[in-house]
């Protein structure tokens, strides 16, 4: 009987120790020793925390933010259409390289802004490319349907010159729109994107003007 009671006491102590270890593991960390809390889990699995961009008002948006996203999506789409024409019509490798750079930067920005509009319960603008509509009204720097038709007809050195002149004007319009967003917008990530647009497209305007001077 004594040996039996000793065995039962040792078994009970082993079970208790195992249960305590499980509790400590659950509270203190995972198998790699990493601790967790509900806040960090939420930030990993959900949306970025409000204010993560470092800008005031990153967690909210206003009408200026919505307008910026709606119009810049259409503005970017036209720039991408122009850049795609350069693949088959441009003569200068430098023009083709610039067009590829523009498309590579603006395609992801279109997706980002479309995501914002969807999250805000707003409609993403319909892609009007190839429908014969003039999208230029009200947006600075936008090409008219006639401008785009002329660009499509050009090729070689004539295309290069026309493309650069039109894209300079297009970029200047985008910079103007981005400046307005910086002044009137509230949503931190949109203000951040506006700053990116201003920096990148101002540099490209300078590059294109130098290319035109050499032509």
Automatic annotation (TrEMBL):
PANTHER family: SLL0788 PROTEIN. Residues 35-64 are annotated as: Disordered. Keywords: Signal. InterPro entries: DUF305_CopM-like, Ferritin-like. Residues 1-28 form the signal peptide. Pfam families: DUF305 (PF03713). This is DUF305 domain-containing protein. It comes from the Bacteria. Residues 65-212 form the DUF305 domain.
């Amino acid at each position: 009987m004594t040996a039996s009671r000793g065995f039962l006491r040792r078994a009970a102590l082993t079970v208790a120790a195992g249960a305590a270890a499980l509790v400590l593991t659950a509270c203190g960390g995972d198998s790699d020793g990493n601790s967790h809390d509900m806040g960090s889990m939420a930030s990993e699995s959900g949306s970025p925390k409000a204010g993560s961009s470092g800008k005031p008002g990153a967690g909210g948006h206003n009408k200026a933010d919505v307008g910026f996203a709606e119009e810049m999506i259409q503005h970017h789409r036209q720039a991408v259409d122009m850049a795609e024409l350069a693949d088959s019509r441009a003569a200068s490798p430098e023009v083709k390289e610039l067009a590829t750079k523009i498309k590579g930067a603006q395609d992801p920005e279109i997706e980002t802004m479309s995501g914002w509009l969807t999250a805000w319960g707003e409609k993403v603008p319909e892609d009007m490319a190839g429908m014969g509509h003039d999208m230029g009204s009200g947006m600075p720097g936008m090409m008219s349907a006639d401008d785009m038709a002329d660009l499509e007809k050009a090729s070689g050195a004539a295309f290069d010159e026309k493309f650069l002149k039109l894209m300079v004007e297009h970029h200047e319009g985008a910079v103007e729109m981005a400046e307005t967003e910086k002044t009137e917008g509230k949503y931190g990530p949109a203000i951040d994107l506006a700053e990116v647009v201003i920096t990148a497209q101002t540099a490209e305007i300078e590059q294109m003007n130098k290319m035109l001077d050499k032509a």
